[in-house]
Amino acid sequence: MSGQSAPQADPRPKIVEALMALAAEQPFEEITISEIARRAGVSLADFRDAFPSKGAVLAGLSKIIDRKVLEGVNDDLAAEPARDRLFDILMRRLDAMAPYKEGLRGVSAWTRRDPMSAIALNSVALNSMRFMLEAAQIDHEGPAGTIKLQGLVLAWLRVLDVWFDDDDSNDRTMAALDKELDRGGRLVARLEDLDRLAAPFKTFARALMQGGRDFNERVRERWQDRASERDSTRDDRDTDRMNV
Hints:
This protein is mainly alpha-helical. It has 2 domains: 9-52, Arc Repressor Mutant, subunit A, CATH 1.10.10; 58-227, no CATH class. It is built from 9 helices and no strands. The chain is extended and about 85 Å long. The model has no long low-confidence stretch (mean pLDDT 84).
């Protein structure tokens, strides 16, 4: 139909590419939204529809990288140890990040200068690592899972510090990742041992708390019964006075 306009292309990929190009050229905190929009060839209105901030654009990049990694996941490594599966997933992530390496170097330098922004981006990294562990079929639920996730994020940041200055062979990066996963594996093993040792105490604590609730309920009922008795006695006295 001639009266209908063609659907507009999603501006988000162009905005992400523009921000990464600018981050490779200048300090991240000096980049303005207007600059990003001009580099991406979009209006400020289109930028606002796509992202609320520069930080949100970084979250958009993280989702793009997540998707590239997850689309390549298959069952080839299903029989391999969990550590090897995670190693493979994270190396795939580095491959997906390679086109943005210099921009990401700039972002990393910015987070060192701006701790509050680093804290905000930590949640983005946690979400990505949650899906990396899921792709590697590694449990990440519960309190222990939360510690695993945050530990993996910190290990990943140390690996990236090596990757930024590594050559295309990524030999030093692979060695750093290997070392971090070994260290993480030992910490997780200790954590799981502590969790098993603490299991009987958790069961006892739950039973004690449940018993405490039952005791509190019995005390509450007793006081309610006594209050009802006092009210009943008071009513009887009032009735006697009225009859005198």
